[in-house]
């Protein structure tokens, strides 16, 4: 041991207990052991990475522990019938507070829709969850039930989202799909979503990518078609033909659409059966922003 033989070089490996610090040192200040030597902190880079990761997923200066409130939101969704394990996991991963205006951060994990600028809104978590869960159900089953035999989740595969908005739903979809293409017709929202998703990708290693497109989603996105799943966050008088054309055999589309008498929106579900034919069904009443043509 070095204490008994001062002339010997101090042993650096394996580390002696008094040279290892258990707690991270704020600000990276050097910590000294009792004999005045600098304590080696082999875990420091890992601890700094973990702190940095937390810093990016926790709202600053609002006294809100986002991880805990996010976990509570996930518990609420599960209690209300969301049973897709991957979907619940995605809701636990995506920091919703980072997608809304800083003035609204305190409401980010409430079950409420919130303004995202330019007259658009981010839907409430329970609606987003119900729609994505519908997208995951097997053809012929409008609803997904984790506990029901034979109703295991459909992989979202190549997924097209119409209406990127702030990018929150796109981030959720990216955790479940092989590939996500998301279109937005408002340039400012498209650019804001791009900046937000880029920042998440840079700060959180392994964060899945989304292909964001600025354009009119009424025509879908032919270059990457067909899609296994299509989901729209804006509703019009009818489903655009392009969406149906770009739906792959075995694929499913979920979108709000005005009912025949006009006015009220309902969720429309379309399955393209393996033989190529389309099967339409409907779910409950919803209220989404209007689907508009053209770009701004
Ligand atoms: N999924 C979004 C919800 C945004 S609200 C989110 O998580 O934030 C719906 C969005 O659809 C709005 O941003 C609106 O501009 C957009 N939208 C409406 N019509 C569109 C169209 N034809 N093509 C692309 N986006 C459209």
Automatic annotation (TrEMBL):
Single GO cellular component term: cytoplasm
Keyword tRNA processing applies: no
Domain of life: Bacteria
One GO process term, biological-process aspect: methylation
MF (Gene Ontology): protein-L-isoaspartate (D-aspartate) O-methyltransferase activity
Record keywords, A-Z: Cytoplasm, Methyltransferase, S-adenosyl-L-methionine, Transferase
Annotated localization: Cytoplasm
Annotated EC: 2.1.1.77
Principal location class: cytoplasm
Principal EC category: transferase
Family: Belongs to the methyltransferase superfamily. L-isoaspartyl/D-aspartyl protein methyltransferase family.
Record protein name field: Protein-L-isoaspartate O-methyltransferase
Highest classification ranks of the organism: Bacteria, Pseudomonadati, Pseudomonadota, Betaproteobacteria, Burkholderiales
């Amino acid at each position: 041991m070095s204490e008994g033989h001062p002339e010997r070089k101090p042993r650096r490996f394996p580390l002696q207990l008094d040279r290892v610090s258990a707690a991270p040192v704020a600000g990276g200040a050097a910590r000294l052991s009792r004999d005045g030597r600098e304590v080696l902190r082999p875990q420091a880079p890992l601890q700094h990475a973990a702190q940095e990761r937390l810093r990016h997923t926790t709202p600053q200066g609002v006294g809100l522990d986002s991880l805990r409130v996010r976990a509570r939101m996930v518990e609420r969704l599960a209690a209300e019938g969301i049973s897709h394990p991957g979907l619940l996991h995605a809701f636990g991963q995506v920091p919703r507070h980072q997608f809304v205006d800083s003035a609204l951060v305190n409401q980010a994990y409430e079950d409420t829709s919130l303004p995202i600028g330019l007259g658009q809104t981010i839907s409430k978590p329970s609606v987003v969850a119900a729609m994505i869960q519908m997208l995951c159900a097997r053809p012929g089953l409008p609803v997904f039930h984790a506990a029901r035999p034979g109703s295991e989740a459909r992989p979202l595969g190549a997924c097209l989202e119409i209406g990127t908005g702030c990018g929150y739903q796109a981030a959720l979809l990216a955790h479940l799909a092989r590939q996500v293409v998301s279109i937005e017709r408002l340039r400012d929202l498209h650019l804001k979503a791009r900046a937000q998703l880029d920042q998440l990708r840079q700060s959180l290693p392994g964060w899945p990518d989304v292909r964001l497109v600025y354009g009119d989603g009424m025509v879908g996105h032919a270059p990457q078609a067909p899609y296994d799943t299509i989901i729209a966050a804006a509703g019009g008088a009818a489903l655009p033909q392009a969406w149906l054309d770009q739906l792959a055999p075995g694929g499913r589309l979920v979108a709000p659409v005005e009912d025949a008498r006009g006015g009220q929106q309902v969720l429309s579900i379309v399955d393209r059966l393996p033989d190529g034919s389309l099967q339409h069904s409907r779910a409950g009443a919803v209220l989404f922003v209007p689907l508009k043509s053209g770009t701004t």
